[in-house]
UniProtKB/TrEMBL annotation, chain A:
SUPFAM superfamilies, A to Z: P-loop containing nucleoside triphosphate hydrolases
Name of the protein: ATP-binding cassette domain-containing protein
Origin organism lineage: Bacteria, Pseudomonadati, Bdellovibrionota, Oligoflexia, Silvanigrellales
Keyword field contains NADP: no
Keywords: ATP-binding, Nucleotide-binding, Transport
Matches recorded under Gene3D superfamilies: P-loop containing nucleotide triphosphate hydrolases (3.40.50.300)
Presence of the UniProt keyword Cell wall biogenesis/degradation in the record: no
Listed SMART domains: AAA (SM00382)
TrEMBL record, chain B:
GO cellular component, one term: ATP-binding cassette (ABC) transporter complex
Record's bilayer topology term: Multi-pass membrane protein
One Gene Ontology MF term: phospholipid transporter activity
Source organism per UniProt: Fluviispira multicolorata
Name of one Pfam family that matches: MlaE
Protein's UniProt keywords contain Transport: yes
Annotated InterPro entries: ABC_MlaE_roteobac, Permease_MalE
Protein's name according to its UniProt entry: MlaE family lipid ABC transporter permease subunit
Keyword field: Membrane, Transmembrane, Transmembrane helix, Transport
Chain segments annotated as transmembrane: 7-29, 59-80, 159-180, 200-223, 235-257
Keyword set includes Disulfide bond: no
Family: Belongs to the MlaE permease family.
Location relative to the cell: Membrane
Chief location: membrane
Length: 256, 259
């Protein structure tokens, strides 16, 4: 493993039209930990995640994955590196036309020459990790939102990645399902030794429940990084306002 | 003076966005061609799309071709009767079906059925992050989603145009025999005399190009969809409209080379 760690973003800049989203972001994800990238909506959390998987290319700056510089890499190189990264999208992003078995085995079918019987066994194992046995034949529209996320997570784990990314896993969920997903993330992190996970979120309850390390984004940069304890005890007005919510503080809140 | 500058700015914006769009489409086309000749070759997916484009379009092609041929026969018969040349009905119908109506009508029908479905499906996958998920799993979405659809359309369109020609001639034959009382022997003799194999080949070549054009446009529009359900609807409409117009323009250009 390089000194740079599994994911290092250096002085990353990204602009969409006139909107400067990332303004020199430096981020070094700690290995084998469950880190959260948090911040208000529109602060560039998802844009950061898309740079880590190479769906977006930076205007300036460097992206290092597993010690390899990827900011100038071509699509073939990205396709290889992405096999080491599992990503769980917001609502699972399962393929509607494929059943659960085909969804989970999709990366296996595309990147390995595994036999069908072995693949069935593998899918069964993955489903047991996420706590959903015997649903291989179901199609995504037949699943609840929680089940879709679990299947999405099983698919993200299919190639045994070193890095697991979660894009807003608890957004627009009721507290019970959100708690279920938090437990799922925590259990997965504990079950799979050596896994580095990054969760994009603005759900402060999730952050406080399961985060081991926090990156707080503000104005396209990392404004704070540290443990949840350090985040909670911070005297910074901006951090305090984000933690407690409310209008009073340096964060401008639009009047609705 | 200010109005003139505004007009120039407006026209400049239109030219820039058109050229930008064309450039993006050419880059997309390059990706499609690159992945068509590069592994992995997704045979299973190509067969699935062959079934979708071909098999599922065949019934509507049969019905449309039969009635187009029959109506052409009815209309041409009125004119040919004036010259007591009803025997030429099959020949005239066959010639127009082989060279123009077969491939163009087939293109229109397949765009409406398969092209719209391709654009809508890919656009839905785009707005639901499914294409991002494919990419995130290290699979190239052009290779997985676009290439099988384009290959299947290129293979299936000439086959469907051939069916269209055959069934259209049958429709015309039935009208000629039962309505205009044309002799079967005369009908086919005139057909063979006027319609050459080269006409059929020219028509099938056109159909092949149309297959490539509509599938690429449908996939491109779906691939670049933005927003939610509205974006999917817009992408589908644009795919159909641009596809139809491209077939007409393409038909003119190919005909220029063929005559």
């Amino acid at each position: 493993m390089s000194e740079k760690g599994l994911v290092s973003l250096i002085n990353l800049r990204k602009t969409f039209g006139k909107n400067k989203v990332l303004r020199g972001l430096d981020l070094n994800v700690p290995n084998k930990k469950l880190s959260f990238i948090i911040g208000r909506s529109g602060e560039g959390k998802s844009v950061t995640l898309k740079h880590i998987i190479g769906i977006l290319k930076p205007d300036e700056g460097e992206v290092w994955i597993n010690g390899v510089p990827m900011h100038n890499a071509d699509e073939r190189a990205w396709e290889k590196i992405r096999q080491q990264i599992g990503t769980l999208f917001q609502d699972g992003a399962l393929f509607d036309s494929l059943n659960v078995f085909d969804n989970i085995s999709f990366p296996i079918q595309n990147h390995t020459k595994m036999s069908l019987s072995k693949m069935k066994e593998e899918v069964k194992n993955l489903l047991s990790i996420v706590g959903l046995p015997s649903i291989e034949e179901k199609f995504p529209p037949e699943l609840s939102i929680g089940e879709r996320k679990r299947v999405g997570l099983a698919r993200a784990l299919a190639l045994k990645p070193k890095l697991l990314l979660y894009d807003e896993p608890t957004t627009s969920m009721d507290p019970l399902v959100a708690d279920l997903i938090d437990n799922l993330i925590l259990n997965t992190q504990q079950k799979l030794e050596g896994m580095t996970s990054v969760v994009i979120s603005h759900d402060i309850t999730s952050v406080m429940n399961i985060a081991e390390y926090i990156f707080f984004l503000h104005e396209g940069k990392v404004y704070f990084e540290g443990t949840p304890e350090a985040f909670c005890s911070s005297k910074d007005e901006l951090v305090k306002q984000f933690l407690t919510g409310g209008r009073n503080g340096p964060l401008a809140v639009p009047i609705v | 003076m200010k109005k003139i500058f505004l007009l120039i700015e407006f026209l400049g914006n239109i030219v820039l966005s058109t050229l930008g769009g064309l450039g993006r489409f050419i880059l997309f086309l390059r990706e499609v061609l690159r992945w068509t000749i590069s592994p992995p070759f997704r045979i299973g997916l190509i067969f699935k799309q062959l079934e979708f484009v071909g098999n599922k379009s065949s019934l509507i092609i049969f019905i449309a071709a039969f009635f187009v041929g029959a109506v052409l026969g009815l209309q041409l018969g009125v004119i040919f009767r004036l010259f007591s040349a009803e025997g030429l009905m099959g020949a005239a119908t066959g010639k127009s079906l082989a060279l123009e109506l077969g491939p163009v009508m087939c293109g229109f029908i397949v765009i409406g059925r398969a092209g719209a479905a391709m654009a809508a499906e890919i656009a839905t996958m785009r707005v639901n992050e499914q294409i991002d998920a494919i990419e995130a799993m290290g699979v190239n979405p052009v290779s997985y989603l676009v290439v099988p659809r384009v290959i299947a359309s290129v293979i299936m369109m000439p086959i469907l145009a051939g069916i269209f020609l055959f069934v259209g001639v049958v429709g015309c034959y039935i009208v000629a025999i039962f309505y205009y009382r044309v002799d079967t022997m005369v009908f086919f003799q005139q057909l063979q005399w006027i319609v050459w194999w080269s006409d059929v080949v020219k028509g099938l070549v056109k159909a092949t190009f149309f297959g490539f054009i509509f599938a690429t446009i449908a996939c491109y529009k779906g691939f670049n969809a933005k927003g939610g359900a509205k974006g999917v609807g817009e992408a589908t409409t644009r795919a159909v409209v641009v596809g139809l117009l491209s077939i007409l323009v393409g038909d003119f250009i190919i005909t220029l080379f063929q005559i």
